[in-house]
Amino acid sequence: MIDEEKKPKTEVEKPPIGAVIFDLDGLLIDSEPLWSEGRRQILAQYGVAYTMKEKKMTMGGDYRTGVAYLVKHYNLPLTIDEYAEREKQLLDRLYKQGLQLMPGVVEFFDKLDQVQIAKAIATSSSRKRLNMVMELVRLGSFDAIVTGDEIRDGKPAPDIFLKVAEKLNIDPETCVVLEDSPLGIMAARAAGMKTVAIYDSRFTSEEDFQSQSKPDLIVNSLRGLDIEKLGAMVK
Hints:
Elements: E1 19-22, H1 32-44, H2 52-58, H3 63-73, H4 80-98, H5 105-114, E2 118-123, H6 127-136, E3 144-147, H7 159-168, E4 175-179, H8 182-190, E5 194-198, H9 206-212, E6 217-219, H10 227-234
Parallel strand pairs: 1-2, 1-4, 2-3, 4-5, 5-6
Helix pairs in contact: 1-4
């Protein structure tokens, strides 16, 4: 009896992506409802309501710029630092009570690890808040992380994404950025990177991205996001 020849194992071809860079809030973690609740509670103390319009104006952008906008828009008797401290205390409690990963995060990370694509985080949040997130939910390890307190100009400026590419020592043009806000997409495009908008229908829509930031791809979840399609964007 002749033994059948063993077929060689087929290796998964690595797409031409230098790194996939993730926003944090609203993209990896379901924190936008917590931010909305925190701001609702603060503004309610001064008899004003936090509207979706104001949320969209500040969502995903530089933190202090967003706070400055709220303080001025609502004519609050607070400095930026005073508001930020109140919000920090509220969010610390809200995160500990109910922070969860967004759908599809773990599965998508597994896909990237299988083809050995570098993963990075570029978040407007502080390093302290990121560390808290890492303790509360399972995010795993990353090849590079840049937080809002490491850069001068936040999103929509490209600084945070360029800093990630610098840390990874790769060409920005080989990077694919996943963002949940138009401001984040604008920042990534300004950095010369490919962009994927992952919108949350509770807070944004496909139209928000099409009209404001024009990403290379728009989807409504990390679930089913195809790595080969991302690779084709970089080619």
